Amino acid sequence: MRHSQYQIWLLTISLAAATLGAIVYATGMGHIAVPGADILRVIAARITGNGALLAGIDPVIPFVVLEVRLPRILTATLVGGGLAMSGVIYQGILLNPLADPYTLGVSSGAAFGAALALLANLTMIGHFSVPLFAFAGAALTLLVVLYLSSFNGQISANTLILSGVIVGAILAAGISFLKYLADEQVAVIIFWLMGSFASRTWLDVAVVAGALLCGLGLSFYYARDLNILSLGSRSADTLGVESTKVRWILLLGASLVTAVCVSVSGIIGFIGLIIPHLMRFLVGPDNRKLLPVSILAGALLLLAADTVTRAVLPVEVPIGVLTALIGGPFFCVIFRRRQRRAL
Amino acid sequence: MNAADGFALAGVSFAYGAIPALAGLNLSLKPGRFYGVVGPNGCGKTTFLDLLTGGKKPAQGSVTFMGQPVADYRRRDLARLIALVPQDFAIDFAFTVQEVVLMGRHPHIGRFASPAAEDWRQVEAAMAAIGISHFQDRYVNELSGGEKQRVVVARALAQQTPYLLFDEATSSLDVRYTMQIFNEARRLVRDEGRTVIAVIHNLNLAAAYCDELICMQGGKVAACGPSDTVLEPELIKKVFGVESRVAFDEFSNIRQISFRYWS
Questions:
Q1: ipTM beyond 0.85?
Q2: pLDDT per residue over A118-171, tens digit each?
Q3: Is A150 helix (H, G, I), strand (E, B) or coil?
Q4: Residue closest to A242 by CA, chosen among B41, B203, B75
Q5: What's the CATH code of the domain at B207?
Q6: Pairwise CB contact (< 8 Å): A234 & B55
Q7: What is the CATH number of domain A78-342?
Q8: Whole-angstrom Cα distance, residue A141 to residue A104?
Q9: Which of chain B's residues have a Cβ under 8 Å away from the Cβ of A285?
Q10: A285 Cβ under 8 Å from any chain B Cβ
Q11: Contact (CB, 8 A) for A323 and A269
């Protein structure tokens, strides 16, 4: 079932190639179709500053590619990778294969923050009000959950999940109340909650890329420690892993990546749950192999989903709804098949 | 070996919240011996081991290991000196047996380094000693309780530490595998001068393998010393509340305890 070392390398490289290919291909799709060669020329011209490369291309195309499509496509790709990475880390730390980046209530916190900003119609910081409120909501929720679940500087997997569920439930009630207060404005809140990558900018790309890079660095640095944490903290401690410290650092890192992703795109479920699960099925639980393939697969999947809703479907379906509608049944099938195999 | 080697506990107390677990422990554990820790359920045996590994910090008193307070060691340094076979050995992720035993080499391998030939050799040797080499490619989450426990013992052996701590390491094993593990531990004490500190529930097993016994009751040491002097019917009656007879058994070639089970 599980693949050999060689096959895992092959899988990692093909996923990376497929993601890069999909970025170029997706950029060509949409109201104005752009051939792949033209896209590469536009990108090359921007990078090298050599205007001659644009000869013979409609002048509107560079704008469409560079200012409209690429920021959105890259944001979706990075968010997909970030959510999948956080999912791997959460599942590893919480010792629970059903945990996802939202288990600790980070999404509810972000949603509450965003709903508050939308309801109060806050525009003091312009375009960034909603994402900033969402991020603040997510970060505050995380701090409350960590405070609730830590005792004597130790945090255990069970108390974390329980605290996350409790805080999430309180926030969900808060969000319902905000929606009730919003009255006619409720549609704006609902749309934000369902997630979208429409009109993302290069700034969004940079913010998500920065968060993802930090998360990547941390998770690869501690990947082997995370493996050993799955033996339980008592074993991990006597194997030389500072389990409490590693848990804190990875949990904060993964949660901040999640918070950034949510604040940029709204709540997109299932990527952080399904991708790590599926990939663990293929490459095994070793985080040093699992992290790269999960990040790439998450990126590829969310890019594909966003491209379908942007360029294939006649109406733009909220991306969070699409991932749940495709991911949910898919997960059920796999879950059922594995259960039958285990009997 | 100098006199400062081994463990020294001075006035050690520990409590879980308001519930005291250990009170005023004074003990010194010398290197190169096989220690058994016995006592009724909930008398603080596991807490005692956790204090030795630095997993728990004493509320009062001090735990010194090789002349230095345990708390002053870096985890990684301590992991090269002390290995623990814990009581719980549940693993929910599908690592192979070999991968789990290799985790025992973690404190010996640099952060971004790959396992060296020596690491693989130790992994092979540990699996061979415990007799689990033939299922090294199976997934640990699909093993039986007893098989998992043997994997965890092999992981501790692969760690190659001078001090080995067993917390009921054979609780799920049949008599054959129990003897296999304790024979290997005994051999390590005899041939390599290592120190074993094992929490054991089976008093006859403790009598057979341990040089010294620490008998605990209600967070205190009820008796300690050479196994032959500690295990007496009066103590067993006082600590466990059961009648027994202790006599030399010719077949075992050791003092064994008989109980009057029911009548």
A1: yes
A2: 888 766 666 677 888 888 998 899 889 988 888 766 777 788 888 998 999 999
A3: strand
A4: B75
A5: 3.40.50.300
A6: yes
A7: 1.10.3470.10
A8: 8
A9: 93-95
A10: yes
A11: yes
